[in-house]
Structures are given as structure tokens and as C-alpha cells.
Amino acid sequence: MSIDAKNRKKPTNNFRYFSLYCLDVIFPKRCLGCKKFDTWLCDKCHARFGLVVEQRCPLCTNVITPSGITCLKCKHKSNTFIDGVFVASYQDIFLKKVIHAYKYRFIKELSAPLALLLAQSLQNAHLKVPDLIMPVPLHDRRMRWRGFNQSQLLAQELDLQIPLVCDNLKRLKFTAAQVKVKNRQKRLKNLEGVFGLNDSKAIAGKKILLIDDITTTSTTFNECARVLKKAGALKVTGLALARE
Ligand SMILES: [Zn+2]
Ligand SMILES: [Zn+2]
């Protein structure tokens, strides 16, 4: 008798890690680019990533703006809260492959070479030094599924000697991944009331840098910024590896 896949019991975390262990034995560590052994990403393949030279307005993405700040037209809309978003790369297929392996094959070691890309793009950005760095939070359910917050690991690896705050901004609701929600209005709706703060007082007067792995049309960044600005943040800027 065949088992209906939908009715199969979901594997527990232990089962998942055991499966991944088996996969590692069958498919040992090899560079995701050139298949060189004993590394997930060799230096040569890391150097292949083409960093974005000109940043765009994070909300409309139509206008090239200095340091990825929001364009004048978007800035004056009532639902704009984010001040700018830096993206390391726009359409780098290899980078997307590496990010996918990081998030869905749970290869945590990739956080170091990916954070290096964030550091390189920050250097190009001439951004004023923020007071705090915050990763975009995951809902507990997704955190349990993945076992780590990919944005938090990137922020930790970035190691900018700026306070990293991971326990203030929180995700209150479980939502569909933004990339799966096609229309911008629906994306905004999908995020309504999703983020909250544990301690709003700690935010007042601060310049904050938010970190995420991938951004679509920056609606997640903008929604986080809305919550942070409401608590009195002076400026909220985002930094992501890629734009979908
Ligand atoms: Zn390689
Ligand atoms: Zn714009």
C-alpha cells in the first residue's frame, strides 16, 4: 500500500539532522562553485560574486540613489519608514545558489563568506556608523525548523564592533515567505502587525542597521523600520545580500 505523502508524519529535528549527516557522508563538503573538496566556497569562487556598484531606491527600485537611500518620490509617501537599503548583489545566480544552500541545506559555515560580502558592500556604501545592528527576526516556528536565524548569523559574522541586538525586535506572527507573495499590496498586507519590540525605550534616538539575507521590494525592512521609528529610532537602514 502506498503512503500518501501528505499524511506522512513530519520528520523531527533529530531526524532532519540525521538525514543531513547522511547526506554529508554521501555528498562530502565541496565548493558550490568549482566542486573543490573540503570547502563550501573556495576563495576563487568567492571572488566571482559581482558586487553592486550603483544602489537603487529600496522601495521603487527604479531610481539609482547614493548609498541606496529612498528616492524623493518614495520618501514622501506616508508608508515609507526605511531610509535606505544596501544590497550586495542584484541578479547573481551563483550567489542565490549559495544563499539557498545556506538557508535550505542548513550549511551554517557559509555565514562567514556571505558576511564578508556584506562587509565589502558596506565599505562601498559610505554609511554613517549606526548605533545598533539588528537582524530581521524569524518566527519561533521557522527558527525551530531551520535551527538558526540566517540573518543573525550573518550579523554576528559581520563583527563590526557595534552593539548587536538580537532579542528586541521580534516576529509576532508566522507568515508566508515574502518571496512567495507576488503582489506588493499583498506583501504589505502579509506583514501587517508582524513585528513588535520587547523594549521600545532602548530604540529611542538610535540609528539602526537591519540585516537580512534577501530582500524582495524591501517591504520586510520597511515594516521593521515602521515599528522602530514608532519607538523613536532616528534612522533605519537595511543591508541584504541580494535583491530577489
Ligand atoms: Zn570554488
Ligand atoms: Zn523610490
Would you mind describing this structure in some detail?
- With 244 residues, the chain is of the alpha/beta class.
- The chain has two domains: 10-42, no CATH class; 49-243, Rossmann fold, CATH 3.40.50.
- The protein is built from nine helices and six strands, in the order αααβααβααβαββαβ.
- The chain has helices at 13-26, 43-46, 72-75, 93-104, 111-125, 140-146, 150-158, 184-190, 219-230, and strands at residues 84-89, 132-135, 169-171, 195-197, 207-215, 235-243.
- A four-stranded parallel beta sheet has the order 1-6-5-2. Strands 3-4 form a two-stranded antiparallel sheet.
- The longest helix is centred in the middle third of the chain and has 15 residues, at 111-125.
- The chain is globular.
- It starts with 12 loop residues before the first helix and ends with a strand.
- 32% of the residues are buried.
- Bound molecules: zinc ion (2 copies).
Keywords:
single chain; 244 residues; alpha/beta; Rossmann fold; 2 domains; 4-stranded parallel sheet; two-stranded antiparallel sheet; 9 helices; 6 strands; disordered N terminus; binds zinc ion
